[in-house]
Amino acid sequence: MKVLLEAKDMHFYAQADEAAFFHAISSIPSIEKWWCELSSVYLRVARKDVDKQALFDLMGIFFRYRIAMGQLRQLETAENCAWFRGRTATYWHPHVFHDAPLPKLDDPATGVEPTGPCLDCEELVRRSRGQNDEHH
Questions:
Q1: Cα 84 from chain centroid (whole Å)
Q2: Number of neighbours of residue 58 by Cβ within 10 angstroms
Q3: The domain containing residue 85 runs over which residues?
Q4: Rounded CA separation 80/90 (Å)
Q5: Per-residue confidence at 129, pLDDT binned at 50, 70, 90?
Q6: DSSP label at 27?
Q7: Percent of the chain with pLDDT over 70
């Protein structure tokens, strides 16, 4: 079964931060394809190929880039349920299973402002094609 995940209205703090996001999603083998539409990045994931490492990577990426983590519930299986849902004292559990809001990074107290949403995904796609064309 294929699962479609959406990362929408993301904010990046530098070009290298944006590049790191796309490098990270391109390095997860169970992400068969990703593409950009307007201010969203879509990830097509082969659910049967999501192993423990891939799920940890996805949770880390979603948490870091403040992507709605509740959609990761679609990746729960009989094989991963015990540690994925069962470990309630983890950073991900309230965000994946209870839709708790993610902490905000652009708090005025930090003095750090995001550069804005990913508006030029097509340019990033063109630049990254030479690195890993199979994910586009």
A1: 17
A2: 25
A3: 2-135
A4: 15
A5: low
A6: T
A7: 76
